[in-house]
Write a structure and sequence with these properties.
The protein has about 375 residues and is α/β, with parallel strands linked by helices. Helices cover about 40% and strands about 15% of the residues. It contains 14 helices and 12 strands.
């Protein structure tokens, strides 16, 4: 029977407590949301939604083609210019998703004969980029510049070091300064995914590379998403102009993909301009994350100290993590639930995302619900 093996795989997932299901949400949910990545609370901000609507009215519902044909509008180039300026880089290139941006950066910058040194905790999109690239990948210990250094010593040709800036599972930050130093000792480029840093870390939310003094460096390339702090959709690669020009000519997820929808570009641009005017939102997101961590650990729960806006709370097992998240939802609180294979260390977690617009009362309520429903 065609695809007969799917039933076997489904049964194995069921036994392991790893079944995933879609849960459509209504436009207006009564749940307190600590599950989304809307770190700055901008997804429903009037300026952001109006930016999306205005772009759709002006440019239409879709980009109509790939970026090299009809999919590049003046709005796309405006967004790229302002993103690069805000984050401190020479140029930017917008993609239809952060996933596509990561695939582009890794595959286009790791040709045949090159070495990719990849952190063991990297996001799936970076891992897939490594798998698709023609270079050879060496996975190294999590957040260890010395491990990167040792890997680079084994290779004489072109090399690139690939890492998240803030890891999505535990919310811990990469040692960017150490990674840059190790890379430069061997003439390697550094490609970092700042999906969870943009809008949260750095001066006014300019990102982790900006905070580390790496913005604008000729050997550093940064990918970002527009779907987290900026409350929209899409992704971008930031870096030297010659690198961006190379991606335009070599990145398959740019050349062959339809351009980002104008509405998403308009929303992201509006959110970026709002963040420029209200830089305090970034600091507030970090404050909320630290408050959640402090209060949760005070109740005896095991939570990882956040370096940005992700707070990870460990669960005893995949089954208990699912049950815990479900009981939180019943009590009016939406939280994330991370289980294998999404977590590289095999430890299941509740994943909470701090938002800049959470009130003191909402923080207190979230901590109470998580504590009362713990396994």
């Amino acid at each position: 029977m065609a695809f007969g093996w799917i039933d076997e795989q489904a049964e194995l997932r069921r036994r392991a407590g790893l079944v995933r299901t879609l849960r459509p949400r209504p436009a207006a949910s009564p749940l307190l949301d600590l599950a989304s990545n809307d770190y700055l609370g901008l997804a429903h901000h009037p300026e952001v939604t109006e930016g999306a609507a205005r772009a759709a009215r002006t440019w239409g519902g879709g980009a109509t083609g790939s970026r090299l044909v009809t999919g590049t509008t003046e709005l796309h180039t405006e967004l790229e210019r302002e993103l690069a300026d805000f984050c401190g880089f020479e140029a930017a290139l917008v993609f239809s998703s952060g996933y596509a941006a990561n695939l582009a950066a890794v595959t286009a910058l790791a040709p045949h004969g090159s070495l990719i040194v990849s952190d063991a905790g990297n996001h799936a999109s970076l891992i897939d980029g490594c798998r698709l690239a023609r270079g050879t990948t060496q996975v190294v210990a999590h957040a260890e510049p010395d491990a990167v250094r040792k890997a680079l010593q084994t290779h004489d040709g072109p090399a690139v070091v690939v890492s998240d800036t803030v890891f999505s599972v535990d919310g811990d930050a990469a040692p960017l300064g150490g990674l840059a130093e190790a890379s430069r000792e061997h003439g390697a480029g550094l490609v970092v995914d700042d999906a969870h840093g943009l809008g949260v870390l750095g001066d006014g939310g300019r990102g982790a590379p900006h905070a580390a003094g790496l913005a604008g460096a000729d050997d550093v390339v940064v990918t970002v998403t527009l779907s987290k702090s900026l409350g929209s959709q899409g992704g971008a690669v930031l870096g030297p102009a010659r690198v961006i020009d190379h991606l335009v000519n070599a990145a398959r997820t740019f050349i062959f993909d339809t351009g980002l929808a104008p509405a998403a570009a308009g929303a992201a641009l509006a959110a970026l301009r709002l963040l420029r005017r209200e830089p305090e939102r970034a600091a507030r997101a970090r404050t909320v994350a630290n408050e959640l961590h402090t209060r949760l650990t005070a109740t005896g729960l095991q939570a990882v100290r956040p370096d940005a806006a992700v707070v990870s709370v460990r669960a005893p097992s995949p089954e208990e993590a699912v049950l815990w998240a479900a009981e939180c939802r019943t009590a009016g609180l939406a939280v994330g639930c991370f289980r294998p294979p999404s977590v590289p260390d095999g430890i299941s977690r509740l994943r909470l995302t701090a938002r800049a617009d959470l009130s003191e009362g909402q923080i207190e309520r979230a901590v109470r619900v998580i504590g009362e429903t713990r396994p």
